[in-house]
C-alpha cells in the first residue's frame, strides 16, 4: 500500500530525474521520409542503413543504433542519435522531418481516476444492420494489448472465414499462443517494445506485471477493443451495476491488436512514438480498414509531420483507412484538444442518460442522494474531514494519523482543491469504511474506487457539513445503500467535464473535436488478472469494468466507422467522417440543447464538435463533403510545405495540381471540411464547399437554412442544389460579412442542407477579429 502512495507522489520527481538525458547522450529520433518510392522493403531498409551510416563511423554502428525501419506503408526509420546526428540527417534532401520520439499517455487517466459505467446497450436493441454487416471489416486497435480469453473476443456464430485481403499475423509471445488466442474474431496480434524499452528502460516484471506479447496486463486495450468490435455477451454487469448485454459497435467486425502501450515501473502506461509509427507501418500493410487509437501527445502540440500519430494517420488516409483518435482528457479549459489533424477523426466524450443513485440516511432523518458504484451497503459513523486531515484537506500526505476505522469521511474537493483520487487514497490510508466526496455538480462522475466512495454536489455536502458541526457528539450515524442503476432518469448526453476542448492550438481553422460519443461510465471487457482499480491494494477480480475517458469514446466511433465502411466500402475516410459529423445531433434526450460538463452552459462546437454521434443516420447522410488530394495539398501549403516536400508525401494522380495557392490566399477555410471555421475574420470572405449526392435517389433537391453567428451576415449561393444523377457533386459558396467590431470572440451558427428527409448540418464558427484594424485606422 505504502509503495503505491509513494509512487504517486514520487512520480514527477522520479520521472524528471529519469528523463533528463545529458545533452551529449543519444535519444530515440524518428526520421520521416514520406512515401515509400522503393517498393521493396529489403531495399528500403538497406537505403535507410545507408543514410544512417553518414552519421556513424561504420555501417555496423549505424545498424546497432537503428530501432526500426519503416518500410511498408511509408518510408523512414527510428534510431538512437545525438543532436548533431539528428541535425545532419534533417538536412538531407530526402528527409522531411526529424523529431524526438516522445512517450504518449492513454486517454483514460490512471486506474484510480475516472471509472464509470457502460455501453448504452440496454437502450438500443441490436439492429439487423449490425448483425448483418461487418464480417468483412478489420479494425486495428493500438493500445495496451488484449485479454484473448474474454468472451468479447469469441467468434460470433457462423462467422465467415478471415477476409482474403488480410496479410497480418498473430505473433506468439509470453502467455500468448496464437493457436488458442487467435480465431476468426481476433485475427491479428502484434507487439512493439523496442522504442518503449529504449526510452523507459526494460520491463521489470517483479516490479510491475507485463507480458512480452500481445497479451495485455493492463485492461485498457481489452476494454477499448471490446467497445469497438466486441462480440455480443448477454447479462453482464459490474457487481450488479449496469446490467445488460455487452457488445461492440460492430460486433461482427474482425479485430487486429497492435500493442504499443506498456505498463511501466511507475504504475503508469506509456506508449513510444517509435513503436506507434511501426504499428502504423505494419497495420496498413496487414490490411486493416479502421484504426482506433486512444492516446495522444499532450499540448503544446508539435507540427503535424513531427508526430507519429499524424504521419501514420496521413498515410492511412491515403490508403483509404480511417483513423479515429480520442480528443484527450484535459477539459474543460479551452484549446487543449489533441490529435487535431484534418485527415483523422477526433472524438470528445459525453455521458449517457444513465446514473447510479445512491441513497444515504444520516441520523435516521436527513436523506441525501448521491452517485456511486458501490456494491455494498455501509453502516458507519459520518465524520467531517477536519478530524483526520490537516485543515480538513483530504490528501494522503495531510493525514493526522488518527484511524477512521468504522467511519465514513465527508470530504470537499474545494477544500485544498483535492481530486477524487486524492480523497479516495486519503480515506483509504486512514482506514475509513467509505468516503462521501462533495464536488461541483458539473464535474460529478462516479468511479470504481478502492474504497466505497459516493459523489454528492456542493449543496448537499454543505447541508451535511453544517449538520455535523451542530452536533454535540462527534459524528452522526450514516446508512449508505449500494449504488443502483437508473436509466432515462436524467438528460443525456452531456459533454464530460474532462473531455478536451477546442479550438485546435495547431490549426484553429479546423474544428476539433469532430464529434462526441459515449465516454462516461462505459462497461466493457477486462482482464481478470488485473483489478478493477488496477491498484495492487485492490483484491477484486472482474471480467467487466467501468471506465471513463475520451479513450472510451474513441472506440465507439471506430465501431460505427466499421459499420459504415461495411455498408459503403467505396467511401473515403473523409466521406465517412462527413457522414458522422453532418448527422450528429445537438439535442439531448429531453429535446433540450446538450450541456457542457464543467460548466452550466450549452455545449458549443468546441465542446462537442458537430454534435453527438448518431450511427443509424450516419449510414444514410444524403450528402457528403469529401476531401481529395487537392484539399490536402492546400493544407500542406498552408502549414508551410514547399511543392517539393508535398510531392514526397502525397500520392499524386495524373493531372493533380500540386501548386500552392498564391500567398495571402492560403487558408484552411477552403478545405472541404464538413464543419466551417473562420478563426480570423477581418473583412468579408467567400468560402467554397462541395457536396456529393450519396442518397438512394438520383434526383434530389436540397434547400439551405442558416443560423448566423452573432454579428456576421451569411449569404449562401445557390440556396437550392438540384442533383440529377447518383454521386453528382455540386459546389456552393458561403459569404461571411462581419457587421460588428470585435477583437476576437468566437460565435456559433450553422448551415443545414435538407431535402425534407436528410438534414446535412455543418457547424459554422466565426471569430470576427477586426477591432484592432479599426482602432489603427481611426487613430491615424
Ligand atoms: C554524436 O555522435 C557522433 C558519432 O558517434 C560523434 O562523432 C559526435 O561527436 C557526437 N556529438 C555529440 C555532440 O555528442
Ligand atoms: C520538426 O521537424 C523539422 C524538420 O526536421 C525540425 O527542423 C523541427 O525542429 C521539428 N520541430 C519540432 C518542434 O520538433
Ligand atoms: C481468469 O481467466 C482465465 C482465462 O479465462 C481463467 O483460466 C482463470 O481461472 C480466471 N481467473 C479467475 C480468478 O477468475
Ligand atoms: C526489478 O526490480 C527489482 C526490485 O526493484 C530489482 O531487485 C531487480 O533487480 C529488477 N530486475 C531487473 C531485471 O531489472
Ligand atoms: C444474470 O446474471 C445474474 C448473476 O450474475 C443472475 O442472477 C441472473 O439470473 C441472470 N439473468 C438472466 C436473465 O440470465
Ligand atoms: C488499518 O486497519 C488494519 C486492519 O484492520 C490495521 O492492521 C492497520 O493498523 C490500520 N491502520 C491504521 C493506520 O489504523
Ligand atoms: C468537525 O467535527 C468535529 C468533531 O465532531 C467538530 O469538533 C468540529 O467542529 C467539526 N468541524 C466542522 C467545521 O464542522
Ligand atoms: C479483499 O479485501 C477485503 C478488505 O479489504 C476483505 O474483506 C476480503 O475478504 C478480501 N477478499 C479476498 C478474496 O481476499
UniProtKB/TrEMBL annotation:
Ranges of residues in domain Inhibitor I9: 28-107
GO molecular function ontology, one term from the record: serine-type endopeptidase activity
Identification of the protein by name: Subtilisin-like protease SBT3.18
Annotated signal peptide: 1-25
Domain Peptidase S8/S53: 134-587
Single biological process term from Gene Ontology: proteolysis
InterPro entries cross-referenced by the UniProt entry: Peptidase_S8/S53_dom (IPR000209), Peptidase_S8/S53_dom_sf (IPR036852), Peptidase_S8_Ser-AS (IPR023828), Peptidase_S8_subtilisin-rel (IPR015500), Peptidases_S8_3 (IPR034197), S8pro/Inhibitor_I9 (IPR010259), S8pro/Inhibitor_I9_sf (IPR037045), SBT (IPR045051)
Residues covered by the Subtilisin-like protease fibronectin type-III domain: 670-766
Species whose genome carries this gene: Nyssa sinensis
Entry keywords, A to Z: Hydrolase, Protease, Serine protease, Signal
Active-site annotation: 143, 220, 551
